[in-house]
Write a structure and sequence with these properties.
With 328 residues, this protein is mainly α. Helix content is 77%, strand content 0%. It contains 15 helices and no strands. The protein has helices at 2-10, 14-31, 38-52, 56-77, 82-97, 101-117, 126-138, 142-160, 169-190, 194-218, 224-239, 243-257, 264-281, 284-305, 316-320. It comes from Bionectria ochroleuca. Pfam families: TPR_8. This is MalT-like TPR region domain-containing protein. InterPro entries: TPR-like_helical_dom_sf, TPR_rpt.
Length: 328
């Protein structure tokens, strides 16, 4: 059942994998089964399924158990291994989801250090180093983020070639690096260095374009990470005043999110972007459609947070805060 859950997770059906693991863990509890590494593997997978479906509480719960089990195993041998390194990275993800960014950064650093100590394969650094770069970015440490992600991308390109189809890990790095360059562009723009900002915007656009290509080649056209990349490209086209392209990418993203309960967060965010964009274009029809999308975004956000917000008080940040840090 663990293998089924892992397969579903890797194919983009994380929500469907949860029921298999819930049953497996219930059976283990009834039978007092504690065999390692299978038990910690199941908790790690459940944590991964939870973070992919915006379930922060379950993510934290299972990653705490996983890390405790793997630390206990490492204490028996006195030798760290891949499983212990990955458990630290997943623990960092759990803390990112509950907005404890400094603590998450510590876990990502520990994960990368552990991987270095055991001479892990280049591919094994993909998630932990990318997570570390994203943690730096979220905290505004843009130079640290840029260096971490650029180094990781260079390592992957050296090992697998540019825009490899080995793993979506490369697309994940590209999305993160594109975000960092966007943030750097905004910072330069605020400092009135518009020429420097424009160069960084162009870099970010190219990186996010490559991210979408890489996701499509590894995950397909309808995966939720593909939708993440479509949302980012819509933002670029809005900034470039390329309105048709922006709406086309938002169509794709919203079509992938659909009405699935576990993607309400992402759907709310893309709905808010679409609504604001349509209103900004102007014209009675666009404004009317835009206001409907904004209302949809508000309703979805209220359902996720179980609150009753005022639409006029909501900002892009309010919707970015809904989604997992790697989807922003």
């Amino acid at each position: 059942m663990n293998e089924v859950a892992v397969y579903l997770h890797e194919r983009g059906f994380s929500h469907e994998g949860k029921s298999y693991l819930q049953l497996a863990l219930e059976l283990c509890e009834r039978a007092k089964f504690s065999h390692e590494p299978l038990l910690s593997d199941m908790h790690l997978t459940m944590g991964a399924l939870a973070n992919e479906t915006n379930d922060a509480r379950t993510c934290l719960e299972h990653n705490v158990i996983c890390l405790a089990l793997r630390k206990a195993e490492a204490a028996k041998t006195g030798v760290p291994d891949l499983r212990l390194a990955f458990a630290h990275s997943q623990m960092g993800i759990a803390y990112m989801m509950v907005k404890k960014f400094a603590l998450a950064t510590d876990y990502f650093l520990q994960s990368v250090d552990l991987l270095g100590s055991i001479n892990a394969d280049v591919d094994d650094f993909g998630f932990p180093m990318c997570n570390l770069g994203l943690a730096y970015w979220i905290q505004g440490k843009l130079d640290n983020a840029d260096k971490t992600l650029t180094d990781l991308l260079e390592q992957r390109e050296k090992a697998f070639g540019k825009l490899d189809s080995v793993s979506y890990k490369t697309g994940r790095v590209l999305q993160a690096l594109g975000n960092v360059r966007s943030s750097k562009a905004m910072r330069l723009s605020e400092q009135n260095d518009h020429e420097g900002a424009e160069k960084l915007w162009d870099q970010s656009f190219e990186i996010h374009t490559n991210c979408l290509k890489q996701y499509e080649s590894t995950l397909g056209r309808f995966a939720h990470r593909t939708a993440d990349a479509c949302h980012k490209l819509a933002e670029h086209h809005i900034r470039r005043k390329e309105h048709t392209q922006a709406q086309d990418y938002l169509d794709r993203a919203l079509g992938i999110w659909g009405e699935r309960e576990w993607y309400k967060n992402e759907s709310a965010r893309s709905s808010f972007l679409r609504g604001n964009h349509l209103v900004s274009i102007g014209g009675d029809r666009n404004i009317e459609k835009g206001e409907r999308w904004l209302q949809r975004a508000k309703v979805l956000r209220d359902e996720v947070l179980r609150c009753d917000s005022e639409l006029e008080n909501l900002t892009t940040q309010d919707f970015d805060d809904l989604v997992c840090f790697w989807s922003i």
